[in-house]
Design a protein that fits this description.
Length: 137
């Protein structure tokens, strides 16, 4: 468990993009992410004004991509906060362990793809912000 990670450790990663008159194609292969992904899921049909996330992970890393539409990712490291707008399907946000995240401002039709470094483990989640602040001390 690394709790000394800060928002300075966040990364925007550009995915390879093959442009073609028939449409573009992007690929996520073995060396693009700094972890082997073990779980893939996506968020869609998020109602206007709804928020997702609202937690941190003790060990899990995630890579988020706006496959369609846009949304904001509000990130907090226990001291500082930043917001990253995702709206390009060939650029994603790498969120390391120990970062609180909230997903907001979903556009109509937005789809958020998430690649995670591990399977779902409830014990890896910190779902209370005050507990998160304690974890970061």
């Amino acid at each position: 468990m690394k709790n000394n990670i800060t928002i300075n450790d966040l990364q925007i990663i550009s995915l390879p993009r093959i442009e073609d008159r028939r449409g573009n194609l992007s690929v996520i292969e073995k060396d693009i992410l700094p972890f082997e992904f073990k779980r893939v899921y996506y968020l869609y049909d998020v109602p206007g004004g709804a928020e997702r996330g609202g937690h941190a992970h003790k060990n899990l890393q995630q890579f988020l991509i706006a496959l369609s539409g846009s949304f904001d990712v509000v990130l907090h490291d226990g001291k500082d906060e930043t917001t990253v707008a995702l709206n390009l399907p060939h650029k994603g946000l790498l969120i390391p362990t120990g970062i609180w995240r909230e997903l907001k401002n979903f556009s109509s039709g937005a789809v958020c793809l998430v690649l995670a470094s591990d399977v779902y483990l409830e014990e890896d989640y910190i779902r209370d912000f005050n507990e998160f602040l304690e974890f970061k001390k």
